[in-house]
Amino acid sequence: MQSTPSTCRASAKAVLAAFGVALLASGAAFAKQSDRQQPINVISTSFDGTQQQPTDKNPGHVIWTGNVKLTQGTLTVTGNKATGYLDADNQLIRVVVDGNAHMQQQDEQNLWMRGNANNIDYTPDNGDAKNTSSGIAVLTGKAHVEKEVDPADRKKLNQSNGDKLTYNTNTSTMTGESNGAEPVHMIFQPKQQPAPAPGAAPAKPATPPAVPAAPTKKP
């Protein structure tokens, strides 16, 4: 059967979902759980809060522009512009970052995940177990995600590229999609093999028996 762009996208998404499981199976830990207990800080060059109060039709939102940087524990999200959406309690419930969007976070083994895309749509983890979107980051447009896999070798990375990558910051799992023009591309690093045991040292030659001294002749 000939593959169509839609079946290619479905297959790519299924394969990358398996890749997310593989990240955990290869020893990657959950994202650092203490991050969700930390406050969210946002800095930027300028700020517009004129639409901060929510209405019946639209949630309240604020706009940060220029060198935007959001941090929560080890989690960092940066970009040219960010729109933050607020609930009725003025809690930040969603951030959409546009232009040179980047994010990174450590897991419980202090290994880094890093992601880049044209756009990142992130729902902060507020600890609400009923919110299935909590801690989800959607990277869109030339999306790239890499994950350190070896504490002893920080250059060893599992990597993936696609039009859209959805990363769960709580579980370190991911799904991905392609628009059909280019496939989702993944790189898996081989498992570190133990060094071979050193060979046995060569046996030392046996000490030759002592030669008895010749008997002394009597005069």
UniProtKB/TrEMBL annotation:
GO terms for molecular function: glycolipid transfer activity; lipopolysaccharide binding. Residues 1-31 form the signal peptide. Residues 53-171 form the Organic solvent tolerance-like N-terminal domain. The keyword Transport applies. Residues 193-212 have a biased composition (Pro residues). Residues 148-219 are annotated as: Disordered. InterPro entries: LPS_export_LptA (IPR052037), LptA (IPR014340), OstA-like_N (IPR005653). NCBIfam families: outer_YhbN_LptA. This is Lipopolysaccharide transport periplasmic protein LptA. It comes from Luteibacter anthropi.
